[in-house]
Amino acid sequence: MSVPDSPEFKDRKALFDRMITVYGRNPVLEALEDPNLECFRLHLADSNKPAAVLQKMQELAVQRGAEVCFHGKRELSRISRNGKQDQGVAADIVCPGFRQLEQYLELPRQGRQRLLALDGISNPQNLGMLVRSAVAGGINGIVWSARGNAELGPLAIKASTGTLYRAPILRCENLGKGLAACQAAGFAIRVLGAEGSTSLLDAATGDTGSVVYVLGNETRGVSAEIRQLADATVSIPMASGVESLNVAVTAALIAYLDR
Amino acid sequence: MSVPDSPEFKDRKALFDRMITVYGRNPVLEALEDPNLECFRLHLADSNKPAAVLQKMQELAVQRGAEVCFHGKRELSRISRNGKQDQGVAADIVCPGFRQLEQYLELPRQGRQRLLALDGISNPQNLGMLVRSAVAGGINGIVWSARGNAELGPLAIKASTGTLYRAPILRCENLGKGLAACQAAGFAIRVLGAEGSTSLLDAATGDTGSVVYVLGNETRGVSAEIRQLADATVSIPMASGVESLNVAVTAALIAYLDR
pLDDT at residue B31 above 60? Predict the structure, then answer.
């Protein structure tokens, strides 16, 4: 049995930190068919009725070197964390860019780093579109905690057009503590908010230090607790009295304007 | 009876060019409750069963100086153009920024103009988000034709968070002819496409002439017919092998990068 401090535990934990569990027949089949993705395990409910698509999944999993595991229906629900929509199928996909935030902060950094941190992005479509924009725009990491944000699941993967699998997701338990660790590591924390007196267009000019931009909930914005940590609040100038932008649009503007 | 060349006809046509017909009980009620919007006519099906919300709509319409018209169910479907979802209710809302593209091109232009033209934006959520981004980013006009694009209806209005009502929509019958007219009026036509050899980041620097950026269908991109008209094809550089961006994100990047 492995104990928390053993090397084996750390390796396994690092492996699991890099995995995303997808569920549902179409999402799992698509992931297995993508030659750029590595599947670690295919999980099937032993109550599934025989079906060609299940047979195909198993063949693909074997070809790709993934383990095929059968479970009772309840155990499968525990793995997918969505028994209502898993359709008796789940898969653990390896995402090479995923890691714990603290692990990322310990690594030597190459050049100026630009991170996004998510403080309550509750809509999975928004999360997926945000990831797609951030990856395309070369953002170095997306700080994500399970608490308060939409899950890294099928809806977000679909909205990300699959870019989520190769996104640099930095997991953390508690966003406040995570941001404090970033600050201690030399990152400036910038919160996005309409009340910000600094325009993103100005803040992003000639910047040389590493920075974390915090994006808040679609309705409530960034929480008070997180705003207290910020080195600056930046806003995006908007014409014609528009009050806010979609959070994925905001992420794209940060990624492409702050270079 | 008015004839096409009479001043009365032109006034009425100009008025109708500025109107958007919304339908469905919630969208109509929200429009009537918004003090910044002008309602021209409230349309009700005479087959509607009495309901408090209908009573409220009529009171608001009268307060706001709108005409209240009753119609047979089939006539109401003709007005809403969506009998399945109109719930017996429609309203003509005046949008001060809407006009015909040709009318816009005849007006004197104040400074450099930046337009977007839509070549087959089929998803109403994308259309609405695009409008929200373009309005916030100060785009001077959005060239829209009924043919090939999602309708300027309730789904797009919702996704635009209401900014569609005050967007500078430039209607045209045929996008190819509309773009040719823009070109004749001195606009450069730039098509967005992954195959473009010019980066938006470069194209947008130090530009002084007026320009139309053409955004294509979510899957197929800009059509061949329209690409032939283009003065240039511009692309947005994308990291990590991402193949495309959401069209609303693209619109925002144009609006904020080409200034």
Answer: yes
Q: Are B211 and B187 in contact (CB under 8 A)?
A: yes
Q: What is the mean pLDDT of residues A130-147?
A: 97
Which residues of A are less than 8 Å from B257 in CB distance? 256-257
- Please report the ipTM that was assigned to this predicted complex: 0.88
Same domain, A192 and A112: yes
| A5-39 residues labelled b (16+ CB within 10 A) or e (exposed) | eeeeeeeeeeeeebbbbbbbbebbbbbbeeeebbb
A252 close to A126: Cβ distance less than 8 angstroms: no
Q: Do B253 and A248 touch (CB under 8 A)?
A: no
Cβ–Cβ of B252/A257 closer than 8 Å? no
Q: Tell me how far apart the alpha carbons of residues A122 and B224 are, in angstroms, rounded to a whole number.
A: 39
Q: How many helices and strands, by DSSP H and E, does chain B display? A: 11, 12
Selected for mutation to probe chain B from A37, A245, A258, A259 (highest B CB count within 10 Å) is A245
Give the model confidence (pLDDT) of B200-214 as tens digits: 988 766 667 999 999
Residue-range definition of the domain harbouring residue B188: 99-257
Lateral strand order in the sheet of A99-100 = A99-100, A169-171, A141-144, A114-119, A211-216, A188-192, A232-235, A198-199
- What distance in Å separates residue B160's CA from the closest CA in chain A? 9
pLDDT at A2: 43
Q: Is residue A27 part of a domain?
A: yes
Strands of B67-71's sheet, edge to edge? B19-23, B89-94, B38-45, B67-71
- Binned at pLDDT 50, 70 and 90, residue A30 comes out as very high
CATH code, domain with A38: 3.30.1330.30
